[in-house]
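Task: sequence design from structure.
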């Protein structure tokens, strides 16, 4: 499955009012636009398979500008985070999406389980690994860790036909270490083991490889048991460091 551009979100929700989001977005667009590099932007867009246009900001430049934009701003609440993320996502250039992801990562503990539909919208809109993976492991993973009831939502996401939603379910425990729900991790890998897309097969291997840092024997045993179902890519990634 290739890049599909902007997809229709599965959940309808209103964008909350937020004076903080208004202020941040104004400062952000001024700062980023002033530093745009059209030549670099073309190269970045090509590297990311034309998923979105770019302003041409390198990561160090973008982070420095973001720090200036955020300096002296108050802590947000969930409504502020929601408004900012949705407004950034409505802008075409990818650097604004990166800003939103970084902002949500920074303030994930201020988000409730009610933010999950917004996270799903972000994952499935202009989807590519550069935003999806950070949202999966840092935002969705943080929400599920804070509210175990959301594990049931992940059980639904792993069944989803959208590969990026399924990839998010696979990767949401990436940073859990000893807190990993091993039964779900292995069940999710088996459930999507026959998926034809590179990004899902890669995610299977990645989440297994990461968990192998915590329990290498469990991963060895799982791969040995399920090797006939797993793709060579998934097996290779899972065992890379063992």
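Answer:
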């Amino acid at each position: 499955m290739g890049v599909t551009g902007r997809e229709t979100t599965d959940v309808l929700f209103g964008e909350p009012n937020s004076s903080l989001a208004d202020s941040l977005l104004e400062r952000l667009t001024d700062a980023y636009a002033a530093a745009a590099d059209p030549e670099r932007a073309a190269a970045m867009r090509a590297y990311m398979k034309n998923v979105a246009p770019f302003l041409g900001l390198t990561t160090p430049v973008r982070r420095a500008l973001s720090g200036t934009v955020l300096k002296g701003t108050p802590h947000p609440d969930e409504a502020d985070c929601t408004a900012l993320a949705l407004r950034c996502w409505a802008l075409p250039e990818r650097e604004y999406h990166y800003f939103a992801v970084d902002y949500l990562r920074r303030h994930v503990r201020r988000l409730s389980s009610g933010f999950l539909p917004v996270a799903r919208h972000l994952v499935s809109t202009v989807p590519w690994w550069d935003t999806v993976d950070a949202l999966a492991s840092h935002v969705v993973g943080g929400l599920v860790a804070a509210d175990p009831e959301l594990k049931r939502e992940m059980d639904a996401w792993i069944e989803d036909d959208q590969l990026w939603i399924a990839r998010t379910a696979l990767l949401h425990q990436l940073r859990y270490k000893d807190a990993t729900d091993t039964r779900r991790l292995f069940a999710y890998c088996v459930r999507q083991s026959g998926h034809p897309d590179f990004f899902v097969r890669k995610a299977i291997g990645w989440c297994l490889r990461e968990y192998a840092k915590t329990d290498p024997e469990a991963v060895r045993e799982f791969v040995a048991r399920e090797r006939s179902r797993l793709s060579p890519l998934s097996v290779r990634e899972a065992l890379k460091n063992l």
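The chain has a mean pLDDT of 94.
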